[in-house]
Amino acid sequence: MRNQLSFSDEDQDELQKSAICWWRRPEEFDENGHFKIDISNFSNLTPRIKALREMERLAFVAVEGLEDLRHKLISYRSGDFWLPVGGIKKEDMDIPPVVTILLAGISGSGKSSFINLMYSVLGRSGLIPFAQTSGESSNYTTMFLEEHNVVRSQRSGFCVYDTRGLDQNQMIEGLDEVSTWMSTGVLHNQPCYRFGVETGGSMEQSDSRYVKRKVNCVMVVADLSKIHKAFECGDLKPVEALRDLFHLPSIKYCNDNPILILTHGDTLNAKERINGRLKICEYLGISETTGAYDIPCLTEQGILPEESDPVTAFALTEAIYRALLQSDRTHLPKKKLKDWIVSFLSWIMLCIASFFAILAHFFSQFGHHKNKLKL
């Protein structure tokens, strides 16, 4: 029996003619959905045509590739995508039991909606919301770190953490908190602190019985409609805040570049949507094709797109797949006894060197003070 998200050849033809392929404008495509220009020489293509070509790739692969890729995520176990390098065996690698993907972004960027879409596409939850979004309440914002098992499986090899959106007017405090998550790990129900904001004593605090997770990959979620507006009006404060987050050293240390998720693009027309993507990718210095995914999260009817939009469903699935590939490449070898001994001895030597440096400084100051007294 074919799955509800599987399609026949006739369905694929219908998909390519439908409004799902929003990027197909008469200026670049003919009535059959084919490029009007020759795109065989990829090196001569403009960034705009490259972005359109990437959208065409997603549409072509989505019909037959969604179920296969989704199965890989549902059956994924931590370390499945690890490849042997340097002559080290897999059992000698320090691979966590669960890979952790952290979502970060400015307030209102759509992180919680993105979580709900993951549940819909991967966990087959339908329209049941697992993460409360700011759209449901004008006063709501994520106050605690939330761990989500988006495939809804007890054997899931990865989890996704939803975080509180950063205030672009208090980026220093927000970036410090993200750096803390990256360096010390994250815990389910851990309070998110903000300057001048209290979490409230009545809200449940983090339970020490929850497992602390090391962050293996970061996805930066950004509102494409706000990005377009910022570039149009010349007020670049929102994109500057996004740039500071995207290039945060602690995130770059974890991954060369985080994966950029662009939401709310469905509120723009096709031209604005592509132009916004090109501008923010250029601004951040990333590829307009492999550096970002356009995932609206909500359809025009305000519901999660699954059956109605297989292109979005596949883009989300591929983004998570890439995050797991990146994560499994960053695992380090386990420390052996001699490594711990070397680290301990290095720490001892550093302490001794610091002690003698302080002692030398003390005697220097003491001798200088003694000479002044003689005079």
Provide an overview of this structure.
It is a single chain. This protein has 375 residues and is α/β, with parallel strands linked by helices. Helix content is 43%, strand content 8%. It has a 6-stranded mixed β-sheet with strand order 2-3-1-4-5-6, sandwiched between helices. Helix 8 links the parallel strand 5 (259-263) and strand 6 (292-294). The longest helix is centred in the last third of the chain and has 38 residues, at 337-374. The protein is globular and about 90 Å long.
Structure described in brief:
With 375 residues, this protein is an alpha/beta fold.
Which class of secondary structure composition applies to the elements? alpha/beta
Terminal CA distance: 100 Å
Question: Which range best describes the helical content: under 10%, 10-25%, 25-40%, 40-55%, 55-70% or over 70%?
Answer: 40-55%
Shape: globular
Strand ordering within the main sheet: 2-3-1-4-5-6
The total of helices stands at 10
N-to-C SSE series? HHEHEEHEHHHEHEHH
- Strand tally: 6
Instruction: Evaluate the radius of gyration.
Output: 25 Å
**pLDDT below 50 for ≥5 consecutive residues: which ranges?**
1-7, 199-204
Report strand %: 5-15%
State the major sheet. 6 strands, mixed
- Report mean pLDDT, rounded to a whole number: 82
Organism: Forsythia ovata
Keywords: Hydrolase, Membrane, Transmembrane, Transmembrane helix
Protein name: P-loop containing nucleoside triphosphate hydrolase superfamily protein
Transmembrane segments: 340-363
